[in-house]
Amino acid sequence: QKEVEQDPGPLSVPEGAIVSLNCTYSNSAFQYFMWYRQYSRKGPELLMYTYSSGNKEDGRFTAQVDKSSKYISLFIRDSQPSDSATYLCATRSGNTGKLIFGQGTTLQVKP
Amino acid sequence: NAGVTQTPKFQVLKTGQSMTLQCAQDMNHEYMSWYRQDPGMGLRLIHYSVGAGITDQGEVPNGYNVSRSTTEDFPLRLLSAAPSQTSVYFCATRGGFNQPQHFGDGTRLSIL
Question: Once rounded to an integer, what is the mean pLDDT over residues A82-103?
């Protein structure tokens, strides 16, 4: 079993839709949670970074962490074609700096 | 501010050839790392460094060497390239321990 599981998709939605991207993790020692966005032929770009359970909002993006169920989510409101990319969840324990990534979910937002 | 710069962007090698992938950063970050990204496998850590003169192995270190003689540079060496090392390689840096990592745009490597 992978330490971080993420459905690779692809996920296709119409412009303006609310998008929900999800990951599960297995190690309760993981304390830091990140979402990265990766456009084709580019490096991962940090979108959201959170430590605690609960919600963190940044513009149209909301990251949600539920440590009790080991579940992390990214919500995108009013999705735009420019949001079309691969979204990677990542986590790490508080003891090491090593990131563990999910496989990434490919999202396409159609005009 | 260039951030994390990786060179070259593309490279084709023959089996058995050697090569060094370059990574340079101008953010004075102590932590640097190398990942490879393969379809269906996500990003996997190859080697990392917590400062000049200190390196350690990640999840998939076999076939790769690293050194860290300066804060700015963290090259990744393939001593004898194999087709299984065909991948996209990313370098990442991090400021403080609780800070997130920032990635370069990658080197696409094909080994024939």
Answer: 87
Q: What is the pLDDT of residues B49-101, one digit of tens each?
A: 999 999 999 989 999 999 999 999 999 999 999 999 999 999 999 988 888 88
Rounded CA separation B61/B11 (Å): 20
Enumerate chain A positions whose Cβ falls within 8 A of a Cβ in B.
4, 6, 8, 32, 34, 36, 41-46, 49, 51, 88, 90, 97-99, 101-104
The Cα–Cα gap between A89 and A5 comes to 9
pLDDT, chain A, mean: 92
DSSP B73: B
Classify residue A9 by burial, with Cβ atoms within 10 Å: 0-12, 13-18, 19+: middle
Residues on B contacting A at a C-beta cutoff of 8 Å: 4, 31, 40-45, 48, 50, 58, 90, 94, 97-98, 100-106, 108
Q: Are B13 and B64 in contact (CB under 8 A)?
A: no
